[in-house]
Amino acid sequence: MWKAISIIAFVLVVAVGAKWIADGAQVFSKDKQQVVVVDEMFGTESTEWEDGFWLGLDVGGPVMGVLIGVGVFGLYRSRQAK
To answer: Residue 63: which domain range?
Structure first.
């Protein structure tokens, strides 16, 4: 059982890390992001704010740390049970 928990924890660490990298590998989480919009008729550029959530290390780091701790503890418990 502990081995399964540790495998799930390590898979979740990889998933959270991949999400962090896909969101731009920022330090702080963001709820809005600037987007450059080009007007097709005149060719002018303007910036607008796009709503959404982009994961940062301020949230992702502690989550990954806890999951790594759970995974290591699960490996320790699974070896101790034998």
So the answer is: 2-80
